[in-house]
Automatic annotation (TrEMBL), chain A:
It comes from Setaria italica (Foxtail millet). The gene is LOC101760161. This is Uncharacterized protein. It comes from the Eukaryota. Keywords: Repeat, WD repeat. GO terms for biological process: DNA-templated DNA replication; rRNA processing.
TrEMBL record, chain B:
It is found in: Nucleus. One of its GO terms (cellular component) is nucleus. Residues 25-227 form the Pre-rRNA-processing protein RIX1 N-terminal domain. Keywords: Nucleus. The keyword Nucleus applies. The keyword Nucleus applies. This is Pre-rRNA-processing protein RIX1 N-terminal domain-containing protein. Its main location: nucleus. InterPro entries: ARM-type_fold, RIX1_N. Belongs to the RIX1/PELP1 family. It comes from Setaria italica (Foxtail millet).
Length: 426, 901
C-alpha cells in the first residue's frame, strides 16, 4: 500500500490500455497498477510526487481527450478532466503547482493544480505538441511540425507582458526537419531535443541558439540526461540506447560520430522513453516491446526487467511518492474563467510540519542576562540606588536583551522601593 | 559541611563530585526562604555551577558499573535542591519567591527525565498561583513565573505520553495569561511569550478561549500604547492563532481580515495621495460582491480615535499597520498541515498601493488634504514602505512557485519601486527582493529583471571606482573631481532620474556643496549618508552597495549567460573595478567600524569578490576578460587568514582552477564557427587582464595588441593617463549614444599607444558598422549644442580638454576613424600634460557643469572625466592617486561596452 518515503517506484504506462504499473525499484515487486490508462509518450507526469497525472490517448476517431489523476495507493482514477483538446504531452512543474499540457492541435494549456483553473491557453505550434520540458520557468515545447519553442511563463501568464513582448515566445528553433520527440533540460540552461530526423540537438536556452547537432543512425524517440550532465542517453527506434557525450572533442570536430560513446542494446523494439535516476547510477527505459528495463549505467548491464504488457510502453518515470495531506484534487478546467473573474488560487502547499523552533532554556538565559546587568553596576546594592543612572553600554548586539533588562531593572527598583521598603532597603 | 566529607575524588570527572558539589551548593549558597538577598555574582556562580557540572542531571556515567551509592547520593542531593527551591517558591518573601522560581526554571531544563515526569505537576501547581494572583504581587515574580512556566511546557512537550495532561495544564493558564497581557510592558512581554509557546505546543488547549485570545491580542496590536518590539511579538502570536483551529479557511480568513483592516487604515492615510478608487478596488478583491464580509478584526478597538490627529499616524496608524503586516508575513511563511489559500491578488494590490505612494499629491487634490497631512505621511512613508517590502519578501518566500501568475506584476512593482526607493534601507530591501525573485523564479525572471537590476546596481556601484580610496583625503578639489566623475558616469546610465537642471551656476562654483548636491541628487540613497565634514564618505552607503553586489552576483548565477551582449561586459568591468577598489581600500586604511551591525569595508570586499567570482564562472567567454586580475585579488585575499574573506578566496581559487586549467572542453568550443567568432577571439584576449577596455574587442588583431598595451600602461602609468582619459571619452560617447561605435572606441587606445601599428587600426576603423552612424550623428548634434556653452565657460586651457573630445566623438564616423591621426592624439596628450595644473579647477568645474546642465548630453559629459582625470593624474598621480586614477577611468569605459554588438 502506502510506500514509505524512501521507496522509489518505477512507473510505466502504455499506449495500449494496460494501466500504469508501479514497481518498487529496490525489490522489483509490482506495487500497484492504476487502471485504466492508455497514454501516448510524454503524457505521464508525477505532480511533485504527490499524485500521478496521465493524459489519455483519445479513442480512435475521437476528438476528445481526458486527463486522469491517480492517488498512489488507489488503483482507480481519482479525478477525470476533460480538456478542450486531446493532450499529447503533459508536464508538471517541480513543486507540483502547475500542470502544462500540449494539445494535439498545437495549443498549450497551463493549469493550476490547486484549483484546476486553466490559467492560460495559447496557440503554440501548427501541429500537435509532442513533448514539453521546463527549465525554471522557461517552458520548452517540441512539436510534430519540427519546431521547438521556448516560452517564458512569466510573460505568458501576464497580459501586459504579453502585449509588450515582441514575440509570444522567447525563442523559436526550426532546425529539426521532422517531429520533435523528446526534450530534456539541464543545468546551465541546456536543452537536448530528439527528433525523428535522426538527430539530437543541444540548445542553449540562455543564448537562444543551437550548440550542437548530433547525427544518429536511426530516429530518436527519447532522451534522458545523466544528472552529471556529461552524457545523455538517446533511445533509438532500432531498440538501442545511445550513450552520447554532451561535449565534443574539439580536435575531431565535424564528425559527430565521435560523440556517440556506445549503446545499450537489449530492447528488441524502439525505445520510447528513458529516465535517469537522480544519482545517475540507474537508467530506466521503456520500449515498444512491452518491457521496462533498469540499467546500471556503469556496467551498462540490465539489472532488472519488468514486463508491462503486450502493448508498447510509452512512458517511464522514477518517482518517490510523497505522503502528504493531499487536499481534494480538482479536475482541470476546460476553458479559462472569464477574464479573471476567479482569482487564481494561490496556496501555501501543505508540507510536513517541521519542528517549530521553540526557544527553550529561557529561564537561564533570562537569569544570566539579568545577573550580568546587575553585575555591571556593582552588585545588587545598586538596585536600590534610586539615582541609578543607566549608561549606554557598548553592547549593541544585545540590544533586545539589554532594553529588556534595563526595563527590568527599573521595575525592580520601583517594586522594591514601593512595596518592600522595610525588608529590602539598605 | 556535609559535602566536604567523604574522602578524595578521582579527579574532576569523578561522578562522585557532583552530588557533593550540589550538596554544598544547597547547604551553603542557596539562601533559606525569607533569607537575605544574595549578590548577583553569587547567584550567577550558582547558576553557572549547576549548569556547567550538570549537577541536576543525575546522569550516571555509562561505562562505570552501576554504583547504587552514587545514584543514591546524587538523588538525595537533587531532592534536597528541589526541596529548597520549592520552599523558596512558596515563601512569602517576594525575593525568595523570585529566586526560587528562577532556580525551578533551571531545574526544568536540567533535571533528569524521570524526575521531571514525576514532579512536573507538583511544580506546575507551585508556579501557577504566582501567575494567577492579582497584580498586587511583585511583577518580577510574575515575569519569572511566565518564563519558568514556558520552560516547563517546552520540556513537557518532549514527553509524548503526557500530552493530554500537558494540554489541560496549558488550558488552565490561558485566562491568567490573557489578564497579564494587559499589564505593563515587561509582564505583557513575558506573558505573550508564554502564550506563544502554549499555542505552538498545545494548540488545542487554546481552542476554548479562541475568541477571547484573538480579541485580546488584536486589541493589543491595534492599541496605541504598545511599542514596536512587543507588538511584533503580539503579531507573531496572532499569526499562530489559525493553527488553533486547523482548517483550510482559518488562515486565509485571518489574512483577509488583516488586509481589510490595513486597507481601511490606508484609506485614511493616503487621502489625496492616490486615486480614489484604490482602496475600494482592493476591498472588492478581498470581499467579492455578494459575499459576506468576514468579522472585523479587533472590532471593539476604538481605532486610535482619542489620539490627536498629528500624532495618530505615528503612534497608531503606522505601528498598527506594520504589526499587522508582520503578522501576515509570519502567516505567509509558516507551514501548515493543510493547504491554505492566500488572497494573492489583494495582497499584491495592497503592496502596490503602498509602495507606489511617493508622497506626491495625486492629480485630483482633495479638499481635505493639507500640507500638514502630507508632511505627516511623508514622515512615516519610509517605515510603511519598509513594512510592505518585508511583506513582499515574505510573500515571495512563502508562495514559492505559486507566485508565477503574479510574477510579472510583482516584477513591475519592484521595478517601479526602484525609482521611488532612495533611502538606503529601502533600497537595500528592494535589492533583496530582486534577489529573492531571481532565485525563486529562475532564469525567466532574469529576463525581466535584467534591466532593473543592472541599471540600478551600476548606478549604485559605479561611484566606487577608486573613490573609496580618495575618500580618506579631505582635499576638496580632489573629492570634487572624484564626485563629478562619479556623477557623470551615473548620469549616463540613469538618465531618467536626472532632473537637476535647476541647480544654479553659482552653486557649481563652490566645490563642496556642489559635491553634495550632485551626489545626493544623482543617487537618492546618498541623501541619507552622513556628510559631515569629518566623514567625507560621499558615495552610496556600503549597505546599498553590498546589496547591489549581491544582486548582481545572483543575477550572474541565475542568468549570467542571458542576452550577454547587452550587459555582460559592462557588469564584468564594473565588478572587477569595484572589487579592486574595495580591496585596495581595505588595505590602505583601516576603517573605523562606526557602529556595530553596520556593514564594514570588509563586508564590501567579500560581497565584491563573491560577485566577481560569479562573473568569472558565468562568463560566456572561454576565458573571462579580467581573470588574471581577479585571481590576483583572490590570492591576496586568501592571505588574510582567519577572516571570511580568506575562506571565501580559497574557495574561489578552487572554483577558478577548473576555469584556468580546463579538464574538459566546454560546449561552446563546438559551436559552429559563425556565431562562435566572438568567443574564439575572446580566448586570445586573456593576457589583457588588466586592460579592461579590450574586453569588447571583436577583432583578433586588436586583441593581440592587448599585451603590449597593458605592459606599456603599467610601465609608465603617469604618461598614459591622459590617454586613458581619452579612451574614456569615446567609450562614454558610444554608450550614451546607444550605438555601436565600438570600433571607433577601440581605436583610441590604440592610436594613443605609440606601440600600436597603424595598419591594424585602419582595418579596425573600417569595421564601424554603418548602422551606428546615424545614431551617432544625432547624438553629436545634441552634444555640440550643449557642449559649446560649457567650453566657453572654461578657461582657455580647458579647450585643450574639450576640443579633442569632439574629435574623438563627433568625428568618429567622419574623419577621425578612417584616418585617425596618431599624431593628433599624442599632441593632445602632451597638451594636457603641459597644462594640467591650470586645468585643474576649470576642468572640475567643467565636469560638474556638464553634469548639471543636462545628463543625457553626450558631448559635454565626455569632458568631465577627461578634464578630471587629467588634472587628477597631474596633481596626485605621482603620489597616491595612480591606482585610483586607473580605477576611476575604468568604469567610464565600461559604459561603452554594452553596445558591443
Amino acid at each position: 500500500m502506502a510506500p514509505p518515503p524512501p521507496k522509489q517506484l518505477v512507473l510505466a504506462a502504455s499506449s495500449a490500455d494496460a494501466g500504469v504499473a508501479a514497481w518498487d525499484l529496490r525489490t522489483g515487486a509490482e506495487e500497484i497498477r492504476h487502471r485504466p490508462c492508455a497514454s501516448r509518450p510524454r503524457a505521464l507526469a508525477s505532480v511533485a510526487g504527490r499524485f500521478l497525472a496521465a493524459a489519455q490517448a483519445p479513442p480512435s476517431g475521437g476528438n476528445s481527450g481526458t486527463v486522469h489523476f491517480y492517488h498512489w495507493d488507489k488503483p482507480q482514477v481519482a479525478v477525470k478532466s476533460f480538456p478542450a483538446e486531446p493532450i499529447r504531452a503533459l508536464l508538471a512543474d517541480q513543486e507540483g503547482s502547475y500542470l502544462i499540457g500540449g494539445g494535439s492541435n498545437g495549443n498549450l494549456f497551463l493549469w493550476e493544480v490547486a484549483s484546476g483553473e486553466l490559467l492560460h491557453t495559447w496557440h503554440a505550434h501548427y501541429r500537435a505538441v509532442r513533448c514539453l520540458a521546463l527549465y525554471d520557468y522557461l517552458l520548452v515545447s517540441g512539436s510534430e511540425d519540427g519546431s521547438i519553442k521556448v516560452w517564458d511563463l512569466i510573460t505568458v501568464l501576464d497580459e501586459q507582458s504579453r502585449l509588450e513582448a515582441q514575440t509570444p515566445y522567447l525563442y523559436s528553433f526550426n532546425q529539426h526537419a521532422l517531429p520533435v520527440t523528446d526534450i530534456a533540460c539541464f543545468l546551465g540552461a541546456i536543452a537536448v531535443s530528439s527528433s525523428e530526423d535522426r538527430t539530437c540537438k543541444i540548445w542553449s536556452l540562455s543564448k537562444g541558439r543551437m550548440l550542437r547537432s548530433i547525427q544518429f543512425p536511426t530516429s530518436i524517440d527519447s532522451v534522458a540526461l545523466d544528472p552529471r550532465s556529461h552524457v545523455f542517453y538517446a533511445g533509438g527506434r532500432d531498440g538501442k540506447i545511445y550513450v552520447t557525450a554532451m561535449g565534443v572533442d574539439i580536435s575531431s570536430h565535424g564528425s559527430d560520430e565521435s560523440s556517440i560513446l556506445g549503446a545499450l542494446d537489449d530492447h528488441s523494439k524502439a525505445v520510447t522513453s528513458l529516465v535517469s535516476s537522480t544519482d545517475g547510477l540507474l537508467l530506466v527505459s521503456g520500449s515498444e516491446d512491452g518491457n521496462v528495463r533498469v540499467w546500471d549505467t556503469r556496467s551498462q548491464q540490465v539489472t532488472r526487467k519488468f514486463k508491462h504488457s503486450q502493448g508498447p510502453v510509452t512512458n517511464v518515470l522514477i518517482v518517490t511518492p510523497k505522503r502528504v495531506n493531499l487536499p481534494p484534487l480538482h479536475p482541470l478546467h476546460k476553458v479559462c474563467s472569464a477574464n479573471g473573474e476567479v482569482e487564481p488560487r494561490s496556496v501555501i502547499l501543505p508540507r510536513p510540519e517541521n519542528d517549530v523552533p521553540i526557544p527553550g532554556n529561557r529561564t537561564s538565559i533570562f537569569m544570566e542576562r539579568y545577573l550580568d546587568e546587575l553585575q555591571k553596576y556593582g552588585g545588587s546594592s545598586m538596585l536600590f540606588d534610586s539615582g541609578l543612572n543607566i549608561q549606554n553600554g557598548a553592547q549593541n548586539q544585545q540590544g533586545e536583551w539589554r532594553s529588556r533588562y534595563l526595563e527590568l531593572q527599573d521595575l525592580f527598583v520601583h517594586e522594591v522601593l514601593d512595596q518592600m521598603p522595610s525588608s529590602r532597603n539598605p | 559541611m556535609a559535602g566536604a566529607s567523604g574522602g578524595f575524588l578521582a579527579g574532576v570527572n569523578d561522578p562522585l563530585l557532583k552530588p557533593r558539589l550540589l550538596r554544598a551548593v544547597v547547604a551553603e549558597r542557596l539562601p533559606q526562604p525569607g533569607g537575605a538577598e544574595l549578590p548577583p555574582v553569587e547567584l550567577a556562580s550558582v547558576l553557572d555551577a549547576v549548569r556547567t557540572h550538570g549537577l541536576l542531571t543525575e546522569a550516571l556515567p555509562d561505562r562505570a558499573p552501576a554504583d547504587p551509592k552514587l545514584a543514591e547520593a546524587w538523588r538525595a542531593a537533587v531532592d534536597s535542591w528541589v526541596e529548597r527551591v520549592v520552599a523558596l517558591v512558596v515563601s512569602d518573601s517576594a525575593y525568595s519567591c523570585w529566586l526560587g522560581t528562577c532556580f525551578l526554571g533551571v531545574t526544568f531544563q536540567e533535571c533528569s527525565n524521570e524526575r521531571f515526569a514525576e514532579s512536573y505537576s507538583n511544580w506546575y501547581e507551585k508556579i501557577l498561583p504566582n501567575l494567577q494572583q492579582e497584580p498586587s504581587t511583585l511583577q518580577l515574580v510574575t515575569v519569572i513565573s511566565c518564563t519558568s512556566m514556558s520552560d516547563l511546557f517546552v520540556r513537557l512537550a518532549k514527553f509524548s505520553n503526557l500530552k493530554k495532561e500537558a494540554s489541560s495544564f496549558a488550558g488552565r493558564i490561558i485566562e491568567s495569561v490573557l489578564r497579564l497581557l494587559n499589564e505593563n510592558g515587561l509582564v505583557a512581554d513575558e506573558a505573550i511569550d508564554l502564550l506563544c509557546t502554549v499555542i505552538k505546543l498545545y494548540p488545542s488547549s487554546v481552542n476554548r478561549h479562541y475568541n477571547k485570545v484573538e480579541s485580546t491580542i488584536a486589541a493589543k496590536v491595534m492599541s496605541t500604547e504598545v511599542n514596536v518590539k512587543p507588538s511584533k511579538k503580539f503579531a507573531r502570536t496572532l499569526a499562530l492563532l489559525p493553527s488553533v483551529r486547523v482548517s483550510e479557511d482559518g488562515c486565509s480568513l485571518m489574512i483577509r481580515r488583516i488586509l481589510i483592516v490595513v486597507n481601511n487604515l490606508l484609506n485614511d492615510a493616503f487621502i489625496g495621495l492616490e486615486g480614489e478608487k484604490n482602496g475600494h478596488d482592493i476591498m472588492l478583491l478581498l470581499v467579492p460582491p455578494g459575499a459576506d464580509s468576514p468579522p472585523t478584526l479587533g472590532d471593539q478597538v476604538r481605532s486610535g480615535g482619542d489620539v490627536h490627529v498629528t500624532k495618530k499616524f505615528r503612534v497608531y496608524t503606522v505601528p498598527t499597520i506594520s504589526a499587522l503586516m508582520h503578522c501576515c508575513s509570519v502567516m505567509l511563511t509558516s507551514y501548515y498541515p493543510v493547504q491554505v489559500n492566500v488572497p494573492m491578488r489583494a495582497l499584491v494590490a495592497l503592496m502596490r498601493r503602498v509602495l507606489l505612494v511617493d508622497g506626491s499629491l495625486h492629480k485630483k487634490l482633495f479638499p481635505s488634504t493639507t500640507s500638514l497631512h502630507q508632511e505627516l505621511i511623508c514622515f512615516e512613508l519610509p517605515s510603511l514602505h519598509s513594512t510592505f517590502l518585508d511583506l513582499l519578501n515574505a510573500t515571495i518566500k512563502g508562495m514559492r512557485s505559486q507566485l508565477l501568475p503574479h510574477g510579472a506584476s510583482i516584477i513591475r512593482l519592484i521595478t517601479e519601486y526602484f525609482k521611488i526607493a532612495k533611502l538606503p534601507t529601502l533600497r537595500t530591501k528592494a535589492y533583496i527582493i530582486l534577489q529573492l525573485l531571481l532565485t525563486s523564479m529562475g532564469v525567466g525572471t532574469s529576463l525581466h529583471l535584467l534591466e532593473a537590476a543592472v541599471s540600478n546596481a551600476i548606478a549604485d556601484l559605479s561611484d566606487d571606482g577608486g573613490s573609496d580610496m580618495t575618500i580618506i583625503s579631505t582635499n576638496p578639489s580632489k573629492v570634487a573631481n572624484e564626485s563629478s566623475s562619479k556623477i557623470y558616469s551615473k548620469k549616463r546610465k540613469q538618465e531618467p532620474q536626472v532632473q537637476n537642471s535647476v541647480i544654479s551656476a553659482s552653486e557649481k562654483a563652490a566645490i563642496s556643496p556642489r559635491k553634495r548636491k550632485g551626489s545626493s541628487i544623482q543617487i537618492a540613497s546618498k541623501g541619507m549618508a552622513p556628510e559631515t565634514t569629518g566623514d567625507v564618505r560621499i558615495s552610496t552607503p556600503l549597505s546599498v552597495k553590498i546589496a547591489a553586489l549581491e544582486t548582481l552576483e545572483i543575477l550572474l548565477n541565475v542568468g549570467g549567460s542571458l542576452q550577454t551582449d547587452h550587459w555582460r561586459s559592462e557588469v564584468d568591468l564594473l565588478l572587477i573595478n569595484v572589487a579592486r577598489s574595495a580591496c585596495d581600500t581595505g588595505r590602505s586604511y583601516k576603517q573605523k567600524s562606526s557602529t556595530f551591525g553596520e556593514p564594514s569595508i570588509s563586508d564590501l570586499q567579500l560581497a565584491s569578490l563573491k560577485a566577481l567570482l560569479a562573473s568569472f564562472l558565468s562568463s560566456p567567454y572561454a576565458r573571462p576578460p579580467y581573470l588574471a586580475k581577479g585571481i590576483e585579488l583572490f590570492a591576496k585575499g586568501k592571505v588574510e587568514i582567519g577572516t571570511k574573506l580568506a575562506e571565501f578566496c580559497s574557495r574561489a581559487l578552487l572554483a577558478l582552477d577548473v576555469l584556468t586549467h580546463p579538464r574538459a572542453l566546454s560546449l561552446e568550443k563546438a559551436v559552429p564557427v559563425g556565431s562562435g567568432l566572438n568567443y574564439s577571439a575572446q580566448g586570445k584576449t586573456v593576457f589583457g587582464g588588466g586592460t579592461y577596455q579590450m574586453s569588447v574587442h571583436r577583432d583578433q588583431p586588436q586583441a593581440m595588441e592587448v599585451e603590449d598595451m597593458y605592459d606599456d600602461w603599467l610601465a609608465s602609468t603617469k604618461d598614459d593617463e591622459p590617454a586613458e582619459a581619452a579612451v574614456t571619452d569615446s567609450g562614454a560617447g558610444a554608450s550614451t549614444a546607444g550605438t555601436m561605435l565600438e570600433d571607433g572606441r577601440q581605436l583610441n587606445p590604440m592610436a594613443e599607444d605609440p606601440k600600436i601599428e597603424p595598419p591594424r587600426i585602419g582595418a579596425a576603423a573600417q569595421d564601424v558598422p554603418p548602422s551606428s552612424k546615424s545614431d551617432v550623428n544625432m547624438v553629436d548634434a545634441a552634444a555640440d549644442e550643449i557642449a559649446k556653452p560649457s567650453t566657453v565657460e572654461n578657461l582657455s586651457s580647458s579647450n585643450a580638454v574639450s576640443a579633442p573630445v569632439y574629435a574623438t566623438n563627433s568625428d568618429s564616423q567622419k574623419h577621425a576613424i578612417p584616418s585617425f591621426p596618431e599624431q593628433k592624439c599624442t599632441d593632445q596628450v602632451g597638451h594636457l600634460e603641459n597644462r594640467s595644473p591650470a586645468i585643474n579647477v576649470p576642468s572640475s568645474k567643467l565636469g560638474t557643469s556638464n553634469e548639471i546642465s543636462d545628463a543625457p548630453v553626450v558631448g559635454s559629459g565626455h569632458q568631465a572625466p577627461d578634464g578630471r582625470s587629467t588634472s587628477f593624474a597631474e596633481l596626485f598621480g605621482s603620489e597616491s592617486g595612480v591606482d585610483s586614477e586607473s580605477d576611476d577611468s575604468v568604469p567610464d569605459i565600461v559604459d561603452g561596452d554594452p553596445d558591443s554588438d
